[in-house]
Batch of 2 targets.
Target 1
Amino acid sequence: MKHDLPLHPDNKLTQRLLQQTSFGQHEGELSFGGVAVRELVERYGSPLYAIDAETVLHRHRQLVAALAGFAQVYFSIKANPQPAVAALLVAQGAGLEVASGGELLRALAAKCPPHRILFAGPAKGREELAMAVEHGIGEVHLENYEEIAILGELARWADRKVMVALRINPSAAAAGGAMRMGGKPAAFGFDEETIEEAMAAVAAQPFLHLDGLHVFAGTQVLDAQVLRQQWTCALTLAVEMGQRLGRPLQRIDLGGGLGIPYHPGQTELDLVAVTQAAAELAARCREDPWLQQAQVLVEPGRWLVGPAGVYLMRVRAVKQSRGQRFVMADGGMHHHLAASGNLGQVIKLDYPLVAATRMGQPEQAQTQLAGPLCTPLDTLGRQTALPELAAGDVLAVLQSGAYGLSASPVGFLSHAMPAEVLVQNGKASCMRRAGSFEQPLVNLGLA
Ligand SMILES: Cc1ncc(COP(=O)(O)O)c(C=O)c1O
């Protein structure tokens, strides 16, 4: 049952997010994907990551519809590398973008047909490139001269033509994106100014076939007009590259970067505006012989899965320190670095957070939520409004389906790994069991 909650005025975003279909409430307890969160932590342990399959699938359908006729949707698996999550999207027709040999194995485990896998990454190793050749994936995105030489050699040994794209760091990237990766000196791809040399280096490799361009200017873009500008720049670059090559490119990868709101004042990316931009750009592609044949694609991660996930933790203690209320939880930055504000954020702002076992109870402002690590960095709530809490209460960090566990320093302080659970149609299934972080301590004779 849904009802308006008496939340702190700043928490309108949290309130909005709780209206999503993943969430429900019954007698003051939050449910997620039709399962009470208390039941989830009792069954799988705390802390815990849970992701709602229906939300993932729904968001994918929404984006496919918004970009229809313009671009296909690939999922950037780094956002949530659980094969079960990728498998949901693959079954619905998505391709996958991977950025390591490990991610490539996960993409294959998710039953993604190899031709729908793209491999980007600023410093790919020989073994990783060999895997790409062996599995005959759709395209390798080349980002430095050494990769061109190694992949060329591997392709010749395998006697296989390998499809490649150049990742280009554009000289005039559209503004925007909290973490910009383009338009400035960067480790990613070739500078646009050097495109001629990079193309010549690929052309010198008879077993590499240059058929694509990859541009990714930055992540967490909430403004559809910024995306429009970035995508427009990328199409222009694709035309120029095709003209230099003397044939149109077959694939134009516009990157990911579609953002989601995390903090008060942030709003959802306007999908209607994205749809309009896509329709205009589709018309441009249809009219331009240099673009007509190309498969255009986007490869978002965060937008598809971020809102579909929660990180659940339990309160271990509540205490006062010099007038400040501290809630100490069993979860923290070792599992969820992004929610602690330490994953590249310039200003540390809280993720949306709710007391899942005390829904609707009056809140007290100015609570600090700290995790179990011996560092003040391990803070998931700074001046958060939370109700009266006691040991055992469950807290839920919303918007946690992307860049959660796999983007966190899980080894720091050797705490146990949390379980990862998929909920679907009121049923939960375990994707990863909770367990010790420890590797066998062979050198100490403790194995
Ligand atoms: C090459 C590439 N593609 C796609 C993504 C996904 O970005 P986002 O999750 O912002 O959509 C990233 C993220 O870093 C990336 O590096």
Target 2
Amino acid sequence: MANPVTILGIAGSLRRDSYNRAILRSVRDLTPTDAQLEIFEELGQIPLFNQDEEANPPEVISTFKSKIRQADAILFVTPEYNYSIPGVLKNAIDWASRPYGDSAWAGKPAAIISASPSLFGAARAQYHLRQVFVFLDMYAINRPEVMIGKAPERFDNQGRLVDHTTQDLIRLLLQNLIDWTRQLNASRSVGVR
Ligand SMILES: Cc1cc2nc3c(=O)[nH]c(=O)nc-3n(C[C@H](O)[C@H](O)[C@H](O)COP(=O)(O)O)c2cc1C
């Protein structure tokens, strides 16, 4: 059997009862057996980016960058703040993209889940994140678009994601991410990408 695809999951919220963090925890139970999910839990320890420090970053950044590099694929699960990506997530992305020429993101396959109590499921944050992927040279999964609206209705009172439609969409997204990652890795091994 092929090696499992390793996925690094990053949630874009620091809130204790965050829906997005709860969704990322639920992804563990939805991940197929031919993949492994590691959740990056240290987002709140990342300081504000300062370009003066990019050549000698704090240890948390070196750890973050090596976790990204070790992972075969990245899964972002994010809310939307003022129609865009939360600052904590953009800040972390910026750190791991620097110094110029030493980005940890380059060439990584990626998938996005977003959730909001509103109807639109943080769709605008997803599209901003996709725009960021262009400069980062990340390969985003296009379908399915997992934009979870009315998020509070999809959890039980213990904060577990129990909505079957949402679970099925996430399973499909993960499967597409795994297939896409294997395809990319196979192309790389024969020098196509
Ligand atoms: C600064 C701020 C801006 C927000 N802007 C949006 C927004 O543009 N669109 C949206 O759907 N929800 C917005 N919200 C509401 C969030 O979707 C809501 O707080 C959500 O629960 C945050 O995600 P979390 O539960 O994972 O922390 C905003 C919340 C904050 C704190």
